Amino acid sequence: MKENFGNLDELKAMGQNKKRPYTIEQILDPNLKCKDGESMKEVQERMKKSIFEILKNNYGKKVAIISHGAAIKFFLVQWCNISNEKIYYNNNEVIVNSPGIIKVRFLKNKFYSMETIY
């Protein structure tokens, strides 16, 4: 999967003008992006397409997917609630450590559960 961080100078300047981390700003505004970058919605679509293709080709197997923290947050947030700038699944805060491990289960290509392992 090819990501596009966009104009890094613009991203840095935007970060200085925001009171929250840029990833949180994008979760709160899924269309926010810097010039030539990707919005949360665009990252979600790219991640969904790739991950579901991997699941289809590896049905019934355990698969490890390695991703940048922001990209995996954007992918996971579609099954979560957002409150006070935090992400929750089943009333538990979803913490994406760097590095970290989040176990996500799918049943017949449908989201089933997630848990932070590390």
DSSP summary: helix tally: 4
**Topology as a string of helices (H) and strands (E):** HHHHEEEEE
Uncertain stretches of 5 or more adjacent residues: none
Helix content: 25-40%
Rounded to an integer in angstroms, the radius of gyration calculated over CA atoms is 15 Å
Instruction: Tell me the distance between the termini.
Output: 24 Å
Q: Largest sheet, described in full?
A: 3 strands, antiparallel
Quaternary form:
single chain
The counted number of beta strands is 5
Domain module count: 1
Strand order within the widest beta sheet: 1-2-3
Instruction: Quote the average pLDDT.
Output: 85
Computed structural class: alpha+beta
What general outline do the C-alpha atoms trace? globular
Q: How much of the sequence is in beta strands?
A: 15-25%
Features:
118 residues; single chain; 5 strands; 3-stranded antiparallel beta sheet; 19% strand; alpha+beta; two-stranded antiparallel ribbon
Describe it:
With 118 residues, the protein is of the alpha+beta class. The protein has one domain. It contains four helices and five strands, in the order ααααβββββ. The strands form two sheets. It has a three-stranded antiparallel β-sheet, with no helix packed on it. The model has no long low-confidence stretch (mean pLDDT 85).
Summarize it:
With 118 residues, the protein is α+β, with helices and mostly antiparallel strands. The protein has helices at 8-17, 22-28, 40-57, 69-76; strands at residues 81-83, 86-89, 92-93, 102-107, 110-116. It has one domain.
